[in-house]
Fold each of these.
Amino acid sequence: MARISNTPSNRPEVIQLLIDGVDRYNPDNVSILEEYLASQCTNRECDAMANLAILKLYQFNNHLINDQVVNNILVKALTTLPEPDFNLCLYMLSEQMANEEAVMRLVKLQDLLEQCRYADFWKTYESDDYFKELTAEVLGFEDSIRANIANAVSMSFQSIEVPNLSSYLNLKDAALSEFIKAQGWTESSNTVTIPVNKDNEAKTTVLVENIKFE
Amino acid sequence: MNYEEEIDIGAEVDLVVSAYPVEDDVLEEELLAADQTTQQYQEVQIPEVVKKFILYFHRNVLENNVNELHSIYEGSFNKLTEKFYAKESWPDPEAISPLVNDDQVFLTLYRELYYRHIYSRLTPTIEHRFHSYENYCDLFNYILNSEGPVNLELPNQWLWDIIDEFIYQFQSFSNYRNRLKNKTEEELALLRDNSQIWSCYSVLNVLYSLIQKSRITEQLLVSKNGGDMLEAAGEYGSRPLYKMLGYFSIVGLLRVHCLLGDFTLALKMMDNIELNKKQALFARVTACHVTTYYYVGFAYMMLRRYADAIKAFSHILVFINRTKQYHTRSYQHDQINKKADQMYALLAMCVTLCPTRLDENIHSQLREKYAEQSNKLSRPDEAIQVFEELFQFACPKFISPNGPNFDDPEVLNRAPFEPIQHYTKIFSSDVQHSILLPTLRSYLKLYSTMGNAKLASFLDIDPQQLRTLLMVAKIRSRQTKWVEGTLLEGELQSTSDLDFCLKEDMIHVSESKVGRRYGDWFLRNINKFQDILGGLELTANTA
């Protein structure tokens, strides 16, 4: 999961300089950032700060706005949940842009994901081809979403019934079993066991005050 | 996890105390004398007292007497404002120009005060706004584009106020520009033809130029990592005027980016300023200090890093509480109190979204001011409305970077775009996801294990919904928290003392308890005991 707080290790030097300096305000540089976004879409990475820089240029220069780019940025932000990237992008959009059909649809998807209503998310996503169109340019969209869902599940559950898991991941039978194995979980009868990690074990701890006498 | 951190602000309190200006007795006498001649005061004439003041002021500006200027600026100017100009503007700059031999530099500075006074006590007209902008351009042009650094020195408080007011007028103009409904034809024409006045780019340009000219970034790096300060500062940066303007511009940018909705960039601006450093430069001017923490806290809140936001707000609120007695006499008293109230509101929201132990004083103040709202925030049916109210009260006055599109023939009929509504909507829908969490927590606290179906019936939702709610709770309890490095960095940590896991249909809850804290109790009782002993000895001696 890419975090805004950590710089992606493969951010090119030229982008780093662009973001750090005043060149980021130069409207002529928008194409460099847009190309970088396109490469993020194909190689499945996410550089939130660079994408926010594009939105900032759009904010100041309305004539540069490219709807497709905005959509891709938002879709990319969906893949990094639970990071707040999606909301940060929304704050940078003007009201007009935010009321576009595409954006509102993506907000609906985000809403479902944030509420962990994964079953509903897949239902909505599959119900309309429009969504598949929106996310077409971002390769590996579904995989990233599944990875996030798997993360949420492994944080909360030590064991979960197969039907529930299947609805969360929108995978069945063979595909589901493969996924389970890939995550390092074990399947037996009708439940999947998730190995204990630091998030899903409920341990009582007592915090004791540490007073030293000197 | 939630140790109360020592908020050590001793050094910062000292700065406030030492900066308090000295009373100006001479002015007091003159004002008394002026009282006796008020019958002769005519509207057109400038009172003698004011004339003398302007001459005295001018002389000190020429001589770069920073200490005198500080007391003139903080004390005398405000007293004269109260006395003569509480409801009208100061004398026109043209009127006082002969008094100061047409000194353009002084007049530019005077105009800065003149317009600032209009903004705060009266309502500025569009001409005032335009002229004030041009005056700022003159001032910054003089500072940045003269041949070589200018030989001017002003008190830090004034330098901060210049930057602060500059951004404030920018914000005020953006809001003014958006509301087209009740404007005259003339005003609309002026707005349409002068889109470069108070434009986003020009404001940002000023702030970035001040930073570059003063090489404040290099200076901050040197003071952090060592090196040759003089070399880093360069010709301009080694002069206090430039250095402080550059420094205040960084805080200025933090503010502007928040106003425009770019919270990550706002925090990035503070990359080279260490917040926890003793004797940090921003602590020299209280208003700057408060502003910095307010915007840092707010940006963290929008990034959903509630734990970090709480820390920032707590720090500055403790500071404001401890230095209360010094603020009552400064004219910024009202401003600082208002910001404090806003921060309490934000704190109330953050604490609901991320329950944390607060410092005792802060907690009691919070309960005093926002008891009712805090309670409502935990109740699912009333919470959203209170969140929105508090958010709108406490948030900065957001602006949109561009004015209305005058090419659009319908522009006069459209409702103005209010950024604050847009942000409230996003914030509110985000908060919506956490609405049931306080109730869930209260139930989880009661049990160590519970069946999914049973808890679902308590909460009046079905088991599937409960499972999703539990996942939300789990995810929300893990936040990025600042550990070290720049403000944007951080590690994912748990911020809740309540933890749980699901084994198929059973929920296992664990709570991290804080062991009995005996240190504080012992200290307090030891002190009490010593007092009693002291009292006993006293009575023994006198008996």
Amino acid sequence: MLTKFETKSNRVKGLTFHPKRPWILASLHSGVIQLWDYRMGTLIDRFDEHEGPVRGVHFHNSQPLFVSGGDDYKIKVWNYKTHRCLFTLLGHLDYIRTVQFHHENPWIVSASDDQTIRIWNWQSRTCISVLTGHNHYVMCASFHPKEDLVVSASLDQTVRVWDIGSLRKKTVSPADDLMRFTQMNSDLFGGVDAIVKYVLEGHDRGVNWASFHPTLPLIVSGADDRQVKLWRMNETKAWEVDTLRGHMNNVSSVMFHAKQDIIVSNSEDKSIRVWDATKRTGIQTFRREHDRFWILAVHPEINLLAAGHDNGMIVFKLERERPAFALSGDSLFYAKDRFLRYYEYSTQKDSQVIPIRRPGTPSLNQSPRTLSYSPTENAVLICSDLDGGSYELYIIPKDSVGRSDVVQDAKRGTGGSAVFIARNRFAVLEKSTSQVLVKNLKNEVVKKSSLPIPTDAIFYAGTGNLLCRSEDKVVIFDLQQRLVLGELQTPFVRYVVWSNDMESVALLSKHTIIIASKKLVLQCTLHETIRVKSGAWDDNGVFIYTTLNHIKYCLPNGDSGIIRTLDVPIYITKVSGNTIFCLDRDGKNRAITINATEYVFKLALLRKKYDHVMSMIRNSQLCGQAMIAYLQQKGFPEVALHFVEDERIRFNLALESGNISVAVASATQINDKDLWYRLGVEALRQGNSGIVEFAYQQTKNFERLSFLYLITGNLDKLSKLMKIAEVKNNVMGQFHNALYLGDVKERVKILENAGHLPLAYITASVHGLNDIAERLATELGDNVPSLPEGKTPSLLMPPSPVMCGGDWPLLRVMRGIFEGGLESAGRGGAVDEEEDVEGDWGEELDMVDVDGMENRDIEALLNEEENDEEGGWGVLDDLELPPELDTPKASANARTSVFVTPTQGMPVSQIWSQKSSLAAEQAAAGSFDTAMRLLHRQLGIKNFAPLKSMFLDLYSGSHSYLRALSSSPVVPLAIERGWSESSSPNVRGPPALVFDFSQLEEKLKSGYKATTSGKFTEALRLFLSILHTIPLVVVESRREVDEVKELVTLVKEYVLGLKMELKRRETKDDPVRQQELAAYFTHCNLQAPHLRLALLSAMGVCYKAKNLATAYNFAKRLLETNPVESQAKMARQVVQAAERNMTDETKLNYDFRNPFVICGSTYVPIYRGQKDISCPYCTARFVPGQEGNICTVCDLAVIGADASGLLCSPSQVR
Amino acid sequence: MAAGPDHLFNLRNNFYLGAYQTAINNSEIPNLSPEDAVERDCLVFRSYIALGSYQLVISEIDDAAATSLQAVKLLAMYLSSPANKESTISSLKEWLADSTIGNNAILRLIAGIIFMHEEDYNEALKHTHAGGTMDLHALNVQIFIKMNRSDYAEKQLRVMQQYDEDHTLTQLASAWFNLAVGGSKIQEAYLIFQDFSEKYPMTCLILNGKAVSCMQMGNFDEAETLLLEALNKDAKDPETLANLVVCSLHVGKSSSRYLSQLKLSHPGHVLVKRVSSAEDNFERAVQSIA
């Protein structure tokens, strides 16, 4: 049982769940009805109008209503929104036990100790039917969820099913009710509206509860005979199916679970029992110490139950609903029902992988709790609470997805929790000893390690590390070093979520989220008031999590906020950009698109990526008081400024960020004295005297203004102010200004005008304005004040300001970042988002058991040597390894006794050499002489000099080099050809060769290209190298052998042709020979474009030498080859010219009518019928005189030598 | 099984995986027992040897140092002056014959390494075959691989696995073994190096291990990328250069630059020797065929 919420109160007699909101009503023995929010755990409201216990309470399924019935014989209908009892239904003559709304009609059914059941219309507020028949208290009555039936239970030991079909017919309109009201009395006794359909007898004590199955024709009842009975009914009858025994006292309430095939009952024996409805056996019992249970309620939609007892109530669920899942790259493995399923995020494809549980096993809370996956081995560990904590290891067979229904025989074991800690290792917690067993995929213990703290669960923490959890802390423990890498005090951690880069970890507790680094250094802590459900990291290091009713984010600095609200809890599995992938409580994968703008923005701000911030400000609709407050609080008022329309807020933000110009604009808009004042203060602080002046002017603050003019030395304005003061008759101001100006005359005048004649006189006389002084003296007459003696007066002149006017220079640091950037519209908003690198987990290994390793080949070769050594080696076998490895002394004796070094095995290269009859493989094996002999025999090759570098390359390329122990000799490893996943070890393949056929094809292409562009030397080099490589090329199939042979002749033609062409260029002084060579070139077997070029050149040479007839012939041949227009034009011109004069100036050794081949060395035609001799390798032809020389075309073989032919494929040997 | 924390774990790991400088830099570990301190010093000096700083090791270790360290010094002397190796070997033999120190695991290990250099596997195994430490067993695996006796190598590996399957040396030795027997086992070797690369900082040794596995599987393109990465880390690492030569040959690129670099920096490397002996071999073969 998973308790979700508990209350303490008076005895709870009635309970009802709100169908939509997380509310529950509890009616108490004290007469109070409480409305609780079980999610937040708060008491929302209480309704206190009943006198005495309230036993029945029920929510309406759509309206804001509930009904209650109590021992005051009253049925009250309440509106919980207005917190008012709407009306009271009177009629029952004794305690009311239960009340219930009908699911669609405006009816209420009530059961009472007056032995009746009544059905009321709560719209007309009348009783529409009284069901009589029970002859004792009716303890419970309820409507059928779909049909027109009522079931009731009574202390008369019966359960009755009533047919109320006729009632529905009669109450089509409310008007009927009124009419029927008069008939009430007649109905009371023997009415026909509701008739007893079945009377279920079987209990031998009073029945306390009976309820319908939500979909099937079943009834379950519980009675004082301590039994729960299951009844079935059909159209005509109803009968007892089975009895569930177990309760030790009166069964108070019993009902079917809304979602699962189980029955839940509670009793005065202080227990709640859960029964399997099909097998009719008890599954689980929950007991309380002191509290008798009185009432049960089942939530109609979600998997929740509630039970009321002597001292309150509990809201609980029977089974955990979180599906166990594990994430791996782009895919999610999760357990649902009996199957392991697989979900691919990119395609959103969902498929079943393997069955993981046999059907029909008892299933309460034993479903998988956690799941761990090893991608390389394709193995899954599933942990459950079965047998007090156990795990099952499944290896997912290749391509089994979605098929077989057969449960694999999983490897099992017991243990608190089990997780993969490496590709092929998993750790299992042994709680009792606080030890961890490291096991391999065969479920064998590889290592035992005791943990540093008493641990009750372990989690993955990077390869080879474990995160161990105890009640109040977590530690990360390195199993190999046996070192604690990090430790953190935490509340009880439920889930651990690592960031994608494994740098940060989120530890989820019931109400807390702790973000820490990979060494468990605390980064921030978040507290939630409601349960934290799940979480995942997005690619930018923001932690996205869910609570019961929100999706929220948490930035690395601990700032959090709500992304959106949720109707039902979800379990986040992955966050990818704007999409949140999650599993819901039905185990369905869902993708939720969220608006990530807010947290991405805040993150950018936090990371000081201001360009990103700016582009977001420009492009998105970010706003809201919360955002502004956030920006202000984080010290970015200047950023907030960009979101605000309201002038007053703009002004405040502008002042805060010191942005005077914006502030002025806003102040002008609002024109409020106070704002001007504040602007003035800020402007003064910044030394922006222009704005200060403006602000003072706006507020008509003349004193400040004149002082400002004084210190900025603005005397003109000061005198203007003086005038204003005069106009305004502000004597004090006038005097001030005069004083500031040092204008004595004015001062005297002011004093005089104000009637302060003595002061005026003194002023005048002190400053030497004698004429005025005299005038005043006369006016004063006798009252002339005396001037102080012995003092020299001086004129009080205002000091000249250091700097007149102008603003102070400002350092504008922030300006560059924000304002500057924001003003330059459209600049660089592109911020590189790091791409999610998907883990390439490679292919599964086809593991060959080491025992089954095939040693055949080598062993066969070594058999003889081995025989006599078997005995000696037995000793080493016996030695094995002494358990105390660290004390070599123990083994010292053995060491000195009998030890015979085994003979060396055969190097791989020797095996190659023995096995192969291909020259290339022999060369790779280093047996150059064998290779040469082979080449000599097969191709008549005698000149090996051109092949030297290839031999060396083949040989050097045949081994790679592995550094094993430091400072010890490096280990050369033979590289084998044709490796595949399924190659058996220890069976040697042929050597990998550095030359292959495809390389030659590449070379051929570049040879063609060089030829086309006329780089003949380069082309010749390429073709020759092809010709030199071919003897050392190995191909696999017969077909390729033919291709190689074709290539030889193809390349030979080019080599011959190019050699002649180069020769022709050398023999500039011999025009005849030049023409001949050009002519022969056209008879080499060339590609069409090259042939055209050859023809063109031959044509040109002959034409120039005035051998028009021959040139004509070339031109004709050229035209036949579909040349490009420029070539064709030239050819046609030659043809025209030649047609006029079909003669040859010089005689050439060239008869194109007579077929011929060209001698590869003397470059003369060998006409058909003439004797020739050929190169055994490249098949070039020679005049007989060349026999025994090295072939001048391939430069390898001896002309005319005997040879068996090119052997370049193992397929030829087989 | 020891329950206390293994202080030398990181140091040892760094050394085995070829992060020699890191090993040296992080060798200041407080609160070591005397035995651990000697082991630590051995590892540090062996790291210096691996980096080629022979003289430093020779001058740092004085005659009063522990036997293990003396043995390490011997190795430095052997590697630093090939000319005087006779005397080094004779003193090595002398020590080995001494019953009081002859059993020292490090001494035996060094003996194994030196005799392996001498290609005297018989003599090497005489001292190492009994094993006793993970290092010795790993060396045995290597010797047997060198002798092309993978059957014996496997037995040694089994012993190591029995003792601690997850030990870095066990994993390394299984990788060597897997590479030596070839076939489908190569994938396992690759995965072992892959695991290392995920768990620990990349070193030339790990990269080369991966690259060699790739080459053995015929995947020369990936091998080249890995090797170039290794070359970035250490432009003079002999194995990187040697493997690059081989790899370039297979992908059809010129290998001559890497080869000359290798010849310059490590004239004694196997590949260099192989190439020069192959040249002679070629000439001889030409003579014989003519």
